[in-house]
């Protein structure tokens, strides 16, 4: 699978049987359909996160192609007001794209502290990059 | 079963002859429709027969390779999936056949097929989705089914039928499209003198033949392949001595909702379960290549033992039709006891999905690096950089 931003092949990261696709060049993260819900074992909270999605139409950020079907992805705001993060979602439901740091923002800013396990897990997976800030 | 094998060899030759006749007729009609001169008809026959001959050679020499390539099947080594190789070897011994070449199709939809000219050159292909979902007993049932296809020489027949069917479809399609685009010009040209009417009739027949030929060929192909599926199910029950394994496998396969993207109209009859079936569609009409799965499962579960006679009884009881098992198979049949199944717990959907992903990555040739911090990195074969930095701890690792 190629990164929708830099078009280079992405690598798959696995920690404790949780898998994400990761672009080593731009630091973006791809979550396959349902993977977010899978991460939140208790899918009620995952659902809450998914429910907070709302599409935005007047966004200047360049549209990106879905790495699976190559269709233009929708810009989606995720999370409560003030803490919103803009991510990309495949219109055909193949998955979600997080630019560098966006996933961590969603997890820390959003009110999902009940799922500390997942947050810890995902932020741990990318902890080096976050602490270093830049490449 | 010798009678069955001989019948299959005879049918393969018969099918080749029949296809030659149909192709020849089609060639003649198309030739005559172009010009009323009989020489045009003979020329058409000649061209058709040359095409037929090339096809016959191709399907004997490389029909299996065509199907494997069309299905994007990758040859794999034992390391990729040891259990699959175990089961294949086990079934080959039970069927007293050489071990076929093993291929994996990198697709999450569960399915399997066998192809080849004869048991010595047979190939067996299963999808990653099948391997990820089935336990050992179920996998054995599916491999046993495919091994029976190889044992019964179904593979040669279906391969030839597939290549021939593909050509007839192609030829008529080319002709029909050609007609469509050239008809406008021809109608108003002053070329047709005198013989115009005869030519018009021939043209009509040609169109009719071009439409009918592929339909006829498809029907023939489908009607024959259904009986084969029942026979292979019976063979699998006998080889594995455990009909429940195949029944469970069929049940799991039928619950799947993703379509096999590499299958098409011509290759569909080769698979253990029709790969083109849409959810909720009832497959009881003329054009179905496979008997309804629910019926196959019911027959397998209704077996008192694992012999052909047991399958035959269960078949008649379930379908209310006369048995599909040839009498020669029933004659030299011996009673076979059903063995007890293993008590392997069923895996969760999540684990199954993970299994499928792992198999697909392995088949695709991903290299797996495990960082000292515990993070596993799976590098795709087309990854360009020579080293990768662990995003968790920052360690830089070379890619072998």
Structure characterization notes:
The complex is a heterodimer of chains A (135) and B (400). Chain A is α+β, with helices and mostly antiparallel strands and 135 residues long. Chain A has one domain (11-130). Chain A has five helices and seven strands. Chain A has helices at 35-39, 43-51, 102-109, 116-125, 127-132, and strands at residues 11-15, 18-22, 29-32, 54-56, 74-78, 85-89, 95-98. Chain A has a seven-stranded antiparallel β-sheet. The longest helix of chain A has 10 residues, at 116-125. Mean pLDDT of chain A is 76; it is low at 130-135. Chain B is α+β, with helices and mostly antiparallel strands. Chain B folds into two domains: 1-364, no CATH class; 366-400, no CATH class. Helices cover 59% and strands 8% of the residues of chain B. Chain B has twelve helices and eight strands. In chain B, the strands form three sheets. Chain B has a four-stranded mixed β-sheet with strand order 1-2-4-3, sandwiched between helices. In chain B, strands 5-6 form a two-stranded antiparallel sheet. In chain B, helix 1 (2-34) packs parallel to helix 6, helix 1 runs antiparallel to helix 7 (196-240) and helix 6 packs antiparallel against helix 7. The longest helix of chain B is centred in the middle third of the chain and has 45 residues, at 196-240. Residues 279-287 of chain B have low confidence and may be disordered. Chains A and B meet through strand 1 and helix 5 of A and helix 12 and strand 6 of B.
Keywords for this entry:
heterodimer, A: 135 residues, alpha+beta, 5 helices, 7 strands, disordered C terminus, B: 400 residues, 2 domains, 12 helices
């Amino acid at each position: 699978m190629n990164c929708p931003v830099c078009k280079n092949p992405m690598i798959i990261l696995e920690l404790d049987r949780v898998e994400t696709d990761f672009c080593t060049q731009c630091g973006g993260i791809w979550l396959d359909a349902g993977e977010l819900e899978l991460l939140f074992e208790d899918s009620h909270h995952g659902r809450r996160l998914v429910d907070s999605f709302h599409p935005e139409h007047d966004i200047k950020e360049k549209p990106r192609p879905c790495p699976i079907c190559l269709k233009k992805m929708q810009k989606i705001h995720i999370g409560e007001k003030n803490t919103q993060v803009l991510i990309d979602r495949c219109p055909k439901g193949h998955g979600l794209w997080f630019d560098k740091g966006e996933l961590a923002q969603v997890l820390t800013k959003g009110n999902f502290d009940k799922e500390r396990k997942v947050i810890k897990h995902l932020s741990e997976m990318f902890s080096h990059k976050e602490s270093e800030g830049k490449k | 079963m010798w009678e069955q094998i001989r019948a299959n060899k005879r049918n393969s030759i018969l099918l080749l002859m029949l296809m030659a006749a149909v192709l020849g007729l089609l060639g003649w009609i198309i030739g005559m429709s172009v010009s009323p001169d009989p020489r045009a008809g003979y020329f058409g026959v000649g061209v058709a027969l040359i095409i037929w001959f090339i096809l016959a050679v191709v399907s004997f020499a490389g029909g299996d390779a065509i199907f494997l390539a069309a299905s994007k099947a990758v040859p794999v080594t034992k390391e990729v999936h040891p259990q699959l190789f175990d089961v294949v070897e086990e079934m080959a011994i039970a069927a007293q056949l050489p071990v076929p070449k093993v291929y994996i199709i990198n697709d999450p939809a569960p399915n399997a097929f066998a192809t080849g000219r004869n048991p010595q050159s047979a190939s067996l292909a299963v999808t990653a989705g099948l391997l990820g979902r089935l336990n050992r007993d179920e996998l054995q049932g599916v491999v046993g089914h495919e091994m029976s296809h190889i044992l019964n020489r179904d593979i040669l027949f279906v391969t030839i039928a597939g290549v021939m069917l593909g050509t007839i479809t192609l030829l008529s399609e080319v002709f029909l499209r050609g007609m469509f685009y050239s008809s406008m010009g021809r109608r108003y040209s002053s070329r047709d003198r005198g013989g115009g009417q005869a030519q018009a009739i021939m043209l009509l027949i040609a169109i009719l033949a071009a439409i009918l030929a592929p339909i006829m060929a498809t029907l023939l192909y489908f009607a024959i392949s259904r009986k084969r599926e029942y026979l292979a199910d019976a063979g699998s029950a006998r080889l594995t001595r455990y009909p429940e394994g195949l029944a469970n496998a069929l049940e799991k396969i039928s619950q799947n909702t993703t379509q096999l993207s590499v299958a098409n109209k011509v290759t569909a009859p080769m698979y253990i379960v029709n790969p083109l079936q849409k959810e909720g569609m009832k497959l009881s009409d003329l054009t179905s290549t496979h008997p309804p799965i629910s019926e196959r499962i019911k027959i397998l579960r209704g077996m008192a033992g694992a012999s052909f006679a047991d399958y035959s009884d269960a078949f008649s009881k379930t379908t209310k039709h006369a048995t599909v098992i040839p009498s020669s198979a029933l004659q030299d049949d011996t009673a076979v006891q059903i063995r007890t199944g293993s008590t392997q717990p069923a895996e969760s959907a999540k684990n199954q999905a993970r299994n499928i992903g792992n198999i697909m990555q392995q088949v695709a040739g991903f290299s797996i690096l495990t960082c000292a911090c515990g993070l596993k990195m799976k590098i795709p074969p087309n990854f360009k950089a020579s080293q990768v930095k662990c995003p968790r701890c920052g360690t830089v690792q070379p890619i072998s």
